[in-house]
Amino acid sequence: MVTMDLVERLAQHKTLGSAPREELAWLAEHGFLRRLAVGEVLSHKGQVVEGMYVILSGCLALFVDRGAGPQKLVEWREGDVTGMLPYSRLVNPPGNSIAQEPLEILELHRDHLHEMIRECVEVTSILVHRMLDRARLFTSTELQNEKMISLGKLSAGLAHELNNPASAIERSVCLLTDRLEDLENAARALEAARLTDAQLAAVDAIRTACLAKKPAKARSPLEQVDREDAICDWLAGRGLDTANAGLLAETEVTFEALNALAEVVTGPALNAVLRWAAAGCAVRSLASEIQGCSMRISSLVGAVKGFTHMDQAMVAEPLDPRPGLGSAVTVLNAKARQKSVIVAMNLEDDLPRVFGFAGELNQIWGNLLDNALDAVPEGGRVEVSARREGQRVVVRVIDDGPGIPEATRSRIFDPFFTTKPMGQGTGLGLDIAQRLVRHNDGVIEFESQPGRTEFRVSLRVADGGEAK
């Protein structure tokens, strides 16, 4: 009687209901009814999946912990089938399957699957299609999760990178207000001095001296203090206002220029000239710093825009891989600096274009570079190179980290496998990189030994595709 009740329920099942009743009867006879309360675990991460589960009522969800606590990856409800399916390679689930509502399932032990394939042709066909749907769902979900994780890393690095120039702009604007006021006061004092033409020529000369191009090697803090002290002594020796010493020390004015000015302009007028020249140079210096920081912000935004390829459609096209590699290095520069890692780029100038999806290639470069930065020690080195080899362009990401252990190399591209500490890796980066490389008609390989790990991505050259 129980078996007949199960057959009737299976006949109403969304997934299996269209199968012949004799096949549903076979499932009811060889399976067993199982009930789970809310919170009970049906299958544990790392343990063998016991069989196929036909959801008759309730809700079951798969939770995966990638270091930030369990996160729901997918859920199944009444009418779904999950667990071990015909021809599936599933052995160990990536997380725990937990009942979210009072759950009732028909469980078919994995030992009966081969017999089911022989006896239940229609059920098997239905389940194979469902397995393909599940594979697509897991693939898209994993890809989306990895994209969100990559976006989080990118956002954190970008926030750090943008904070420095933004803070410098804010600081410079505050100082600029004070310096403009100094410049206005000095200009009024200079006008009141009613200088002669010869004196005005000397004023122009000291202004030119102050605005001289700074040397390539900046002065050290100690050298700057010594220079300010020397200028302060020069001013004090002539009875002038020493408050201008700091501003003058920031310029490139020489003592020869100061002495030449002092021979032509004296007294309060000399104070006004020096104050005007120093304030004017400070205003120009602050304006230049603001411009430089603004350009830095603009370049970062441009790098992120190019890295995400957010303004272009996802279509395969001939493209130059160099901008994407440069953008990947730029957006991960903050992470490199935190570990004092040197990132060297060696890209051929006449590198031909490759055929692929720009956004996907950039995600590949980002994943490989991010892994390399994780692998190297403090003060390590990462090299990114690209060169043409026959009809392929080969991109290499090389790091001087400890290398990949021999025992784990065969699993390095497996989904959810990671050698990083808990909370630092998802085990999806290289798996997704491999899928994206294949989608772009490429090949990814690696070689590793202590002190040198190299990942190679080989992409086909676009027809007639010299770089523009």
Named CATH architecture of the largest domain: 2-Layer Sandwich
Morphology = elongated
Strand content: 15-25%
Q: Stretches where pLDDT falls below 50 for ≥5 residues?
A: 421-427
Q: Portion of residues in helices? A: 40-55%
Element string (H = helix, E = strand): HHEEEEEEEEHHHHHHHEHHEEHEEHEE
Summed up, what is this model?
The protein has helices at 2-11, 21-30, 113-119, 121-193, 197-210, 221-237, 245-250, 255-264, 267-308, 321-331, 333-338, 358-375, 429-439, and strands at residues 32-36, 41-43, 51-57, 59-65, 70-77, 81-83, 96-99, 103-109, 317-319, 342-347, 354-356, 381-389, 392-399, 443-449, 452-460.
Topology:
Elements lengths: L1 H10 L9 H10 L1 E5 L4 E3 L7 E7 L1 E7 L4 E8 L3 E3 L12 E4 L3 E7 L3 H7 L1 H73 L3 H14 L10 H17 L7 H6 L4 H10 L2 H42 L8 E3 L1 H11 L1 H6 L3 E6 L6 E3 L1 H18 L5 E9 L2 E8 L29 H11 L3 E7 L2 E9 L8
Parallel strand pairs: 10-12
Antiparallel strand pairs: 1-8, 2-7, 3-6, 3-8, 4-5, 4-7, 9-11, 12-13, 13-15, 14-15
Helix pairs in contact: 1-2, 4-9, 5-8, 5-9, 9-10, 10-12, 12-13
Q: What would your notes on this structure say?
A:
The structure is a single chain. The protein is of the alpha+beta class. The protein has three domains: 2-119, Sandwich (Jelly Rolls), CATH 2.60.120; 155-300, no CATH class; 309-460, Histidine kinase-like ATPase, C-terminal domain (Heat Shock Protein 90), CATH 3.30.565. Helices cover 50% and strands 19% of the residues. The protein has 13 helices and 15 strands. The chain has helices spanning 2-11, 21-30, 113-119, 121-193, 197-210, 221-237, 245-250, 255-264, 267-308, 321-331, 333-338, 358-375, 429-439; strands at 32-36, 41-43, 51-57, 59-65, 70-77, 81-83, 96-99, 103-109, 317-319, 342-347, 354-356, 381-389, 392-399, 443-449, 452-460. It has a five-stranded mixed sheet with strand order 10-12-13-15-14. Strands 1-8-3-6 form a four-stranded antiparallel sheet. The protein has a four-stranded antiparallel sheet with strand order 2-7-4-5, covered by helices on one side. A hairpin with a 4-residue loop joins β4 (59-65) and β5. α10 (321-331) crosses α12 (358-375). It is elongated and about 115 Å long. Residues 421-427 have low confidence and may be disordered.
